[in-house]
């Protein structure tokens, strides 16, 4: 018999397997339609009857991204799967009972323009197996999610994640989770959003711990940089740079103009491009998250943070370019965020460095951006991650590494201790 859970919005039917229960495509906010794509996320009205939670959600509108023959579909998912109601979460739980288990909320990466809960890498079976309730989140991307427009709230994708965390606080107990023991974790753009949550006043009380994987605590655009993207987008579309004007434009057109936006030079007299040209979208903030932690919940939050040793190899073809990109885009902002958190949190900052080298691309890929994810989610032995085009390459995953990495994430979510000392000691994984 299919499992069923009662939540404030109504009943949801899920799936049961040997790992526990899975409930998919549960809305945490109303569907972003028309002008609503550029508004604050609004609560979704409840439903009558039993909602089908056995099928995956539609995804935010997004382009196809090519990484030169490397199969990144396990990371990006299937691309744009059309449907209005994509502000949803998937919940993996050992059981929808009164267990009050630790909760982990994952925010996917994808350069602020791609990604979804449908990505195969984010399978939550190992988390449920190990006594954790895993929640994965869809949020608005690209123009609807992050373009700075007159008449629209800024950082709408971040507002979505905040709304999802509010949903978790109010609802997760019905799925066997403890709303008082929530760890939010993200990778890449999702890690940058997680860093911003640490500095967001509205995030106070929504989570107890955070994990920042290959993010950038100094990755926000200045208003001048964001405006440059906005002007270019409005010009390409032939409309005014307002939420009202953009609200009448179909999502297909937003995707068509992305190549032109990606070519913009965002360097100004006072700021470099914090994303080194890899995305025309980011958060738009007056102060970088690493310099504003005292404004948010960071002082009361335990933090696990780190990078991979060869982050830039995913994006470039030369060693020199990769070293520069890795330091500029990931390492410097991560180090600044870690230092800032250590100063205000009383020794509750833990740092890691992930060094396992994938053998993909004839061994060039190495410990690149995203390579830690199969080990965090304990899926590194899956055949779709191996072979000539697989993220981990033709070689098998090293024995015990996924158990060690995934185990550290689980331990941190349960206790705040991943298994090594605080900020002054960097744990090498791999």
Residue stretches low in confidence (pLDDT < 50, at least 5 long) are: none
Bulk shape = globular
Radius of gyration, in Å, reads 20 Å
Instruction: Supply the number of structural domains.
Output: 1
User: How many strands in all?
Assistant: 13
CATH topology: Rossmann fold
By DSSP (H or I, 4+ residues per run), the number of helices equals 12
Strand adjacency order, main sheet: 3-4-6-8-7-9-10-11-12-13
Kindly describe this structure.
There is one protein chain. The protein has 430 residues and is α/β, with parallel strands linked by helices. It has one domain: 3-Layer(aba) Sandwich (Rossmann fold), CATH 3.40.50.1820. The protein is 27% helix and 17% strand. The chain is built from 12 helices and 13 strands. The protein has helices spanning 73-76, 125-129, 142-146, 156-171, 189-198, 223-237, 243-246, 251-256, 258-262, 319-345, 373-376, 401-415; strands at residues 4-7, 10-13, 15-17, 20-27, 50-52, 88-93, 101-107, 133-137, 177-187, 209-213, 302-308, 349-354, 426-429. It has a 10-stranded mixed β-sheet with strand order 3-4-6-8-7-9-10-11-12-13, with helices on both faces. Strands 1-2-5 form a 3-stranded mixed β-sheet, with no helix packed on it. The radius of gyration is 20 Å and the shape is globular. The protein starts with a strand and ends with a strand. The mean pLDDT is 96.
């Amino acid at each position: 018999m299919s499992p069923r859970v009662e939540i404030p919005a109504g009943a949801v039917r899920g799936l049961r397997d040997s790992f526990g229960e899975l409930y998919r495509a549960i809305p945490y906010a109303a569907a972003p339609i028309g002008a609503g794509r550029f508004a604050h996320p609004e609560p979704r009205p409840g439903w009558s009857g039993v909602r089908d939670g056995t099928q995956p959600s539609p995804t935010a509108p997004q382009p196809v991204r090519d990484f030169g023959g490397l199969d990144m579909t396990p990371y990006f998912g299937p691309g744009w799967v059309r449907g209005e109601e994509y502000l949803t979460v998937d919940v993996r739980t050992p059981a929808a009972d009164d267990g009050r288990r630790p909760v982990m909320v994952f925010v996917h990466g994808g350069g602020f323009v791609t990604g979804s809960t449908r990505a195969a890498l984010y399978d939550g079976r190992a988390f449920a197996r190990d006594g954790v309730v895993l929640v994965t989140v869809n949020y608005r991307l690209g123009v609807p999610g992050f373009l700075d427009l007159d008449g629209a709230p800024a950082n709408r994708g971040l507002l979505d994640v905040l709304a999802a965390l509010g949903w978790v606080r109010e609802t997760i107990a019905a799925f066997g989770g403890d709303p008082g023991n929530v760890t939010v974790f993200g990778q890449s753009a999702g890690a940058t959003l997680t860093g911003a949550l640490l500095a967001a006043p509205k995030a106070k009380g929504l989570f107890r711990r955070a994990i920042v994987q290959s993010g950038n605590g100094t990755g926000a655009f200045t208003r001048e940089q964001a405006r440059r993207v906005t002007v270019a987008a409005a010009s390409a579309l032939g409309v005014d740079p307002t939420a009202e004007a953009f609200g009448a434009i179909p999502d297909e057109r937003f995707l068509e103009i992305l190549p032109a936006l990606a070519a913009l030079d965002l360097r100004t007299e006072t700021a470099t491009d914090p994303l080194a040209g890899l995305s025309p979208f980011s958060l738009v903030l007056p102060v970088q998250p690493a310099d504003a932690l005292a404004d948010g919940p960071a002082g009361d939050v335990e933090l696990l943070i780190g990078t991979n040793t060869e982050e830039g190899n995913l994006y470039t073809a030369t060693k020199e370019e990769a070293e520069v990109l890795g330091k500029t885009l990931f390492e410097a902002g991560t180090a600044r965020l870690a230092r800032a958190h250590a100063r205000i949190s009383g020794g509750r900052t833990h740092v890691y460095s992930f060094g396992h080298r994938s053998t993909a691309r004839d061994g060039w890929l190495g410990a690149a951006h995203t390579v830690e994810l199969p080990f965090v989610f304990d899926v590194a032995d899956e055949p779709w991650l191996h072979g000539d085009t697989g993220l981990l390459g033709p070689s098998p995953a090293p024995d015990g590494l996924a158990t060690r990495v995934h185990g550290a994430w689980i331990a941190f979510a349960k206790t705040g201790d991943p298994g090594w000392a605080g900020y002054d000691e960097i744990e090498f994984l791999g």
